[in-house]
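Q: Structure tokens for this one, please.
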Amino acid sequence: MINTAKAMEPKATHALASGGFFVLRVMMMIELINVSKIYPSKAGDLHALHHIDLTVQAGEIFGVIGKSGAGKSSLIRLINFIEQPSSGIVKIDGKNLAELSRQALRQMRLKIGMIFQHFNLLSQRTVYQNVALPLELIGQSKKQIQKTVMPLLELTGLVEKKSNYPAEISGGQKQRVAIARAMATHPTILLCDEATSALDQHTTQSILHLLKDINKKLGLTILLITHEIEVIKQICDRVALLDNGNMIEQADVFDFFTNPQTMIAKQVVKSSLKQDLPLALLEKVTATPTSSNNAVLRIIFHGKAAAEPFVAQLMQQFNIRLNILQANIEFLKKDALGIMITEVMSHADNLQHGIAYLQQHGVNVEIIGYVNRTH
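A: Here is the predicted structure, written as tokens:
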């Protein structure tokens, strides 16, 4: 968690809006301190969140991932204070939301846009009218509304659809309308609750590209709630893992995927990065080394390590021979992440020296078992 006073101050940036003019964006930080949420019921209290500490830094794209029932939706409703925590503190821009007056809370909510899985558009209103709705509700004039809505339609690629009704546009276009509507009040935070879950893969890519573009151009702080690990891999700067209402792990996305710290996070990463052994080999892997078997390593490399000829170095410097069983490249945002599963044919001492060499060069190495040399 960021504790310095400097980090708690709102940051400002100039961003080029789609209409071609510069606007001053004050970026905001989200902070949850020891937050719990309990829903009373006749069957007994439901503990949706347990003592959550979370900091989303100004201007970043932060992903919260977890299975259904993990507490993700409860978390996002607390951030915009649709619901209040049972205990703990929710801060936006350093301000405790529970201490704000009704008027100040309404003003704060105008700075927090939100988009949902099922769009929530009004079927009897056109695209333009749906985007204009939040501005009508706060009493802006038609001229003011037009000045805001048209640049947003341009930014989200909807100008040609402005007179269409929701039934006349695609699912991806509906989500673009929802994004434009969420930005109508010039928010500095955008909350996305499973925003791509109802979309196909191609449309999801389009929406993620739009969110990245908005983050880059306007400096919005974006918090994504999702159960889709691919969304985290493609767009997020940092990630938090929720499970049964508990905050399991928080990390930079690269650190999360290359060096998960908890068993649950390791399981999530393993399934998402396709690190499983081939079934034919898995049946022959044992946990105990002997004088007649070889180690099987999972090697994960990225950044500068991806350009290093470490396989050649292992063979030449440490007299280690490698049999590559499986290998693939993943991409976290624009950065490549290489994953290799290999059988190592070497003396035990050479193997340990080789592993130490890899680790010194920023390569993550794990011994995942041993196989008989005659397999």
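A few notes: The radius of gyration is 25 Å. The CA atoms of residues 34 and 51 lie 4 Å apart.
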